[in-house]
């Protein structure tokens, strides 16, 4: 069985960044396993700009951003296997994979980084009644058809869900000559970034109908229309508010789910809030030597944050391989308090923290003028006023190791939102 110091599962922005960071930290036997025909992941189909402002201080398209890291990987001669599907990762870091040339094979790794990304929530998870006609796509599938394959899914479009991909596809379909009738959103707020609402909907006069959902699909062979309705505070359709909209295409942008079948089968503990692995300050899972980063850990809004997180995972995996990562020692849970859905990491070991640690999290609802607070047991160490807090935008705070070291009996770190 061939062995590598580090095996990275996934050749998207997370896997590429982690590989570069691990190499720069001194690890040489690195292998990236990617199931697609080329590196770059989802970025290859994201031809719009807006990437790289934090990482490169310039605005890039998705393929341009990916190319920067693909070049870094090639400059370092980091090994990659494309068209290779990973079937299993064992708790003792044996990776089983398959491809056309080698068939089924196994590799042994000193450390593994999980960077498989995420997938879209399909129609089957949405419980929308009606037949199964042609013309219903997830927004990401439509994006690949238009941007990479040169196919137009349809001409008269309704979009369900206001996630960033759905908003971007509203603009993209319009630019390609389609008529986007509206974007319907179940929640009372948009699931996408404010800049995408402005640039992709408002600039093109596309209506956004909040607190609305699709309640019926019409057509048997090909989609002929959808019925939408307003929903109440419990997200139940309100009788009498139904509207019929003729269309030949329905795009679904109803959320992303981390790809964690491999993680679950390996015995990695998953968070019920994110569906991603539970990790500590080193982005290490409950299984020693198995790390996670990027959208497989929790869904990010900006690829620049994926890169920052993955740099950290690569650096910490290198420290583990070089016996420079201290033992876990004392454990302090990080709790999601009032108004916060989750935190990453969700546990901290002060004895192996850097001088400071970035806590990333999302809020559970839209808040205006509220305070972002961090408590160490009963003592508040951060109280920062935020003009707007929204679930679509990931928030982050930094805590210092010194704050934890001077509290040897600390039982919990709590991140919460407090009203004025």
Quick take:
The protein is of the alpha/beta class. It has helices at 13-24, 62-75, 139-147, 164-175, 194-201, 261-266, 303-321, 401-405; strands spanning 2-9, 30-33, 79-81, 85-89, 94-99, 103-114, 118-120, 136-138, 156-160, 179-185, 208-210, 212-218, 225-230, 243-246, 249-252, 256-258, 290-292, 332-336, 340-344, 347-348, 356-363, 367-376, 379-389, 395-400, 413-418.
Give a written overview of the molecule.
The protein is an alpha/beta fold. The chain has helices at 13-24, 62-75, 139-147, 164-175, 194-201, 261-266, 303-321, 401-405; strands at residues 2-9, 30-33, 79-81, 85-89, 94-99, 103-114, 118-120, 136-138, 156-160, 179-185, 208-210, 212-218, 225-230, 243-246, 249-252, 256-258, 290-292, 332-336, 340-344, 347-348, 356-363, 367-376, 379-389, 395-400, 413-418. The mean pLDDT is 95. It folds into 3 domains: 1-120 and 256-325, 3-Layer(bba) Sandwich (FAD/NAD(P)-binding domain), CATH 3.50.50.60; 122-254, FAD/NAD(P)-binding domain; 328-420, no CATH class. Strands 1, 2, 3, 4, 5, 6 and 17 form a 7-stranded mixed beta sheet that branches. It contains 8 helices and 25 strands.
Average pLDDT number: 95
Amino-to-carboxy terminus distance: 60 Å
Number of helices: 8
Portion of residues within helices = 10-25%
Query: Which quaternary structure do these chains form?
Result: single chain
Shape from CA axes?
A: globular
**Low-pLDDT ranges:** none
Instruction: Give the strand content.
Output: 25-35%
Number of domains: 3
Number of strands: 25
The CATH topology of the largest domain turns out to be FAD/NAD(P)-binding domain
Determine the structural class based on helices, strands and strand pairing.
alpha/beta
What is the name of the CATH architecture of the largest domain? 3-Layer(bba) Sandwich
How many whole angstroms does the radius of gyration measure?
22 Å
Query: Could you state the CATH homologous superfamily of the largest domain?
Result: FAD/NAD(P)-binding domain
Q: According to CATH, what is the class of the largest domain?
A: Alpha Beta
**Main beta sheet:** 7 strands, mixed
